[in-house]
Amino acid sequence: MKKIMFYISAFVLVSCQMKNSKFKNELLIQDFIIDNFEDYRHVHDTLNDIIKYRVKMKVKSAKSLISKTSFQVDNLIIFNKDRTKLYTTLNSINPINAIGSSDLIQSLYGVKIEGKWYVFLGANLIAMRDDYKYNKYEPFTWDEISFMAHEQMFSRYISIADNGKLIPKSDIVEKYVDPEHIGGSSISQEGTEKERFIRLWEFENSQTLDSTEIEQIKEDLEAGKNKPKDPIKKVTWWDRLWGKEVPIFETDEWKEYIRSKNQEK
What we know:
Elements: H1 2-56, H2 63-66, E1 70-73, E2 78-79, E3 85-93, E4 102-113, E5 116-128, H3 142-153, E6 158-160, E7 166-168, H4 170-176, H5 179-183, H6 193-206, H7 211-224, H8 237-241, H9 252-264
Antiparallel strand pairs: 1-3, 2-3, 3-4, 4-5, 6-7
């Protein structure tokens, strides 16, 4: 019996260490944002404005955003060396009681051509809430969905040095912010990289939603409001004894982090 309890305790300890490691990385990312955000705030604002315009114009590549309560570009932006290409994410949240129990994170690529930023959306991550918080019907806060974006979407573009500093991988941004990687077969291989980017931009902006598609989005949103809900289950001390983790956004460490962050504003 003692041996069994030892293994259970060891498992719980390892789980806590893994969680603390994730949280530590987020603190390092926030340090990087604090040190660098003002240098690229104008770019961040420009990206948000471009996305808002594409939603307003009902461009098909922004279809997933039409049903969202709100969306914003993440504060972490990774550039190539000459700051003509970038990678970040677009984080968006569903209305309360809407379809499902998830929010959305999308890769966002940017390329600067002759002083103008062109923006492209890439792979989606369905941000399931129930692995991170008790109430899966409550949308993520911006801090929460940003944490998930950093954890799930940025690993290719950043690394953590031995001295605890975040290292942006500018060479990876240069490599993957590429018209073929972003657009696939939707554009031809002819012309320079800049010409291919512009063709992809023009193609995406020419594809807009019709009234039938927009109406379907609205109907789906209304239908989701009446879906039955599962009961909210919390992790008990007995669950923890057997290795079940408290969702990270329900931990004391996370709540203290948010309190400290809000006090600094």
